[in-house]
Amino acid sequence: MVYYNSDGHDSSMCGNGGRCLVKFAQDVGQIKDEARFIAVDGPHEAKLVNDWVHLKMIETGAPQGKDQGQFLDTGSPHHVLRVDDVNSTPVFEEGRRLRNEVYGQEGANINFVEKLDRNKIYVRTYERGVENETYSCGTGVTAAAIIASDQNWVEGNNVAIQTLGGDLAVSFEPSSNGYKEVWLKGPAVRVFRGTFEI
User: Fold this and answer.
1) What amino acid positions are annotated as catalytic residues?
2) pTM, whole model, 2 decimals?
3) What is the spatial distance between Cα 65 and Cα 6, in angstroms, rounded to a whole number?
4) Domain boundaries of the chain, sorted by first residue
5) 7-29: per-residue pLDDT in tens?
6) Measuring CA to CA, how many Å separate 45 from each of 19, 33, 163?
7) N or C: which end of the chain has fewer CB within 10 A?
């Protein structure tokens, strides 16, 4: 999988893009209910369970504290902050500021997290390369779920996530130096068909 951001540059890993890739491969008859592929961050495997695509993400290290938040690379670099009310948070303005002031030219994605329940969070993300808020970021919710568990914002290692684009889930297992068996789960639905000429 090679993924391009809206600025035209190659992107780091895109979790939701990977799930859509797998669903598309099934739709066109290339796979049945399991797949393996290579992305910029290494090999991935996936399985289709009912209407959801389960995508295995890379193993991660432990989150690192940074500028009133936590940092974790889940195939893409993510800064995660907890807020009381994510809908009243200036995601664009504050996300853009942190992306540039804290992380410089290379940047990082900035995730704002609100706890909804004992194992559910609401995440909004400002993405580098897009340079705006996106409806849902797969590597971002993965980072947010792991950090929410690591920081005891939620209970357990199976976290439900609400985003502007829909519902996702992330499960993982602690390891000696971080987290393993990290799975990003959610729906992938074809929304249009088109043709193009080269």
Assistant:
1) 14, 137
2) 0.93
3) 29
4) 60-179
5) 788 888 999 999 999 999 999 99
6) 10, 11, 24
7) C
